[in-house]
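User: Hello, can you help with two protein structures?

Assistant: Certainly.
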Amino acid sequence: MADNSKAEDTASDSVEAAKNASDKKEKLADQVMQNPQVLAALQERLDNTALTPSSYIETLPKAVKRRIDALKQLQVKCAHIEAKFYEEVHDLERKYAALYQPLFDKRREFINGEAEPTDAESEWHSENEEEEKLAGDLKNVVVIEEKAEAEETNLKGIPDFWFTIFRNVDMLSELVQEYDEPILKHLQDIKVKFSEPGQPMSFSLEFHFGPNDYFSNSVLTKTYKMKSEPDKTDPFSFEGPEIVDCEGCTIDWKKGKNVTVKTIKKKQKHKGRGTVRTITKQVPNDSFFNFFNPIKVSGDGESLDEDSEFTLAADFEIGHFFRERIVPRAVLYFTGEAIEDDDNFEEGEEGEEEFISILS
């Protein structure tokens, strides 16, 4: 009996303590809510939370909403005009590509030893010309030795020009495997070709190879199909042409030379007899030359899985990089000067972001 009475007293004390604590909280809340500064701060927070653009639009009169809808109609028409602008830009790219091509053809001749530059063509004044003059004697000795060595080896052109670019550029070197390197040393030129007038917008990359022991193709191609029109379901997302699909080519590999596959051996057990046999099987292998066998975008609107979408996006980025940077500025990627410029540009962007962050 004593124990029961003690337990009842303890429970009663706990209930009383909880009630007192609740009363104190209510009194404190009443005092806080009577403070004008606290109320103003709460009201401002509620106003900022509630007043989103969409909620604000909902509060507008019907006549104003009607005018906003008219502005959206105008915006859609602007998007279609912008699409036409980019189509004309593509036509200009095609026109100027024809003007660049003779220079690129001469570049190819110098690289592959098909022609030698004249003294006027090879004259170049370095930014470090003064330093070079101070070291003139040493430089002359080196040049003489280099000339003697070149004469002895009958060196032509610029060896491993494009392969060196692949090695210098991180985006490309990550794709190249050790067994790809001997093949890329046969790469003689990369060209960009634009779609003809009246054809759907696209551009192609042509990789020209010299005779080699790996495949019989002289040219490997990759075509990127582009779209330059607003999406009917989301016209306001239009920001210019975008790559929507790409198409590779068939590589005619010579027997036993296909680096995009590897042969593995696998043991297989017969279900009935229990005997074991070894079978050989070809499976995909990492290689730069998978670049010419891209993931296909489904035409029926079926969405790709996350990994495929990432792979396709990376493919599109590489295609753009070849077209806009590598091919037009090849010699600067060979020497590394363009890579330094790219690094400085990225550092400048980071500095600008930090500056904006400080201001905000």
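That covers the first. Now for the second protein you mentioned:
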Amino acid sequence: MAAIKTQWTRLIRFVAAETGLVHLGEPVERHLDVGLAAYEKKPIKAYEVLGSALDPAAQVTKNVLTVKELLAPLEREEVKIVRCLGLNYADHAAEAKLAKPAAPVLFYKPATSIVGPLAPISVPKCAQPVDKHLSDYEVELVVVIGKAAKNVSEADALDYVLAYTGGNDVSFRTHQFATSQWGFSKSFDDSNPIGPCLVSAAKFPDPQTVGLRTVLNGSIMQNGTTSDQIFTVRQTIAYLSQSTTLLPGSIIMTGTPAGVGFVKSPPVVLKDGDDCRVWVGAGIGTCINKVVEEGKGGLKARL
């Protein structure tokens, strides 16, 4: 089994200033944090990419476009399913005073939860007010599956990865802890930023050496690496593909390190107007999202 190779190294999805239309592109500046640059309204140029983000044969052209608005690197319609791992970092399990799981803890969320790297995070009315509800941040490395995977071995698991990106698995703890099943509490609309870009798996370093950081209102809350994962990316893909086909476009959120808000004393809760930033290394970059309580902020999620 051969690894998936793409023409592009980093892929973004954006509205171009020249056309007003949505395009795919390869950033001209190789090491630019496109999420941070877009937030700071710095000029971003990209070589236009023709084709689908999920097609390894998508072609990088010489046509240069200007980013007017940075979007999620995958459209909701391209995301077949969102699989998420809970309690997958040893330091996070320790801070939560929970035993390390014997097998990956899996939950699902719908594509309607996905928003772009600069879109507002919506705190729904059912998770307000903040003195009764715990809305939390979770920086994560996200895996994008590129070809159908079923019953794959750990040795071959990374050959099924198209790309990696970052994400913020915003969690609504009051609802989460009310039941043993986390699907409902993790599925609220417009609550899960991903991006700012895809990094091709063929150009990605060891996925177990990636830095992760969350900064909330200027304060560092999480600062870890994927080396602390209980189940590695290889192990996760092999486990989840047992008798189950992981389709191209499926994404896997691989868990979060220590530093989440609900374990702090007093707890740190996401509230209206907060500036929440998650950074993932290896060329992925930063998602910068304002927290908006539904019915207050008036901001609309941009996919």
